[in-house]
Amino acid sequence: MVFRLCDSAGKFPWEWNVGDATDWFDHLRSVRGLAQSTLRAYQGMIEAFCDFATSPAYDWSVRSAQMFGQVFSQVVNEFNRITHSQTNEAKPEKRAFTEDELQQLFDLLDVEYVRVLESGRSGALTVLRDAAACKIAYGWGLRVTEVRRLQIVDFSANARTPYFGDFGNLHVRFGKAKAGQVFKPRNVLTVWQWAAEVAEDWTNNVLPRYGEPLTDLFPTNTGSVVSANHLWQRISDCVDELGFPPGLDFHSLRRSYATHLLTSYRYDIKFIQMQLGHEHAATTSIYTLPAADFQIAELARVHREMLEATGTAVALPKRKLRLPPRPPLPPNRKKNRGAS
User: pLDDT at residue 2 above 50?
Assistant: First the structure.
């Protein structure tokens, strides 16, 4: 960060002034469009460097005055410092998928697999892997790092929900860590039957086609795990093809999980907080903002209850996520991955 500010201002650190830092921060915010949290982190680094350079415990300013005729100064102050004044600093266009958009997304992922399969091109297994990763990310409300680093042993049975088989519980070992700390693990309970079926089908029927032995849930042909950029790009391509409005990305799957649990399935906010691994309920509230179709669904629910109370109930359909059966797999080209 020190070198970046030097490049921006065209000056050495002992020549900096508050205006140089302010111009750089304004450029990062208005031109490059960096998030508030990122800018605040950059400011913290510059502020810490200036605190060190101007500290009376060291003679940096004295030596600078002797050699260059200038001294260090603190260039981050109350006039240009970005304060953390809001709970939610996410970009306003970021949002969750509606249930209809999510259905279209999953349908397109399955259609893409059929396209590759019927064209005879290679990569059908990769498309199928990406589809399973996206569905599992939504099915358990996972971040991209959490889903890409899953391993087969992370799934286990839940004695309270035997109908989910061996996929009633997911142990997330690479949960988001606080600054300077290790990954924060958590357990996520399975809430949907279709999600357990997707995980079971992928683990038992498709994943073995990558060869044996296998440990990672979403490997690549080279033996590594699928990259975060690849998954983000896959969702971005699907969103563009479907013509959805901006604001949807891979992390929207996690937003959708929290939103749908609250608005469509009426789960308690505390349960959702534990599923997401949030330390504070205020953080969960950011993820559970009602989706665009929530008002319509809620109005229909109230009307249905009113009609039932008067004895004139009508059937109002309730939308649920539908996953079509997976097309047949291509011929097996099983490879031995070796001990690695």
Answer: yes
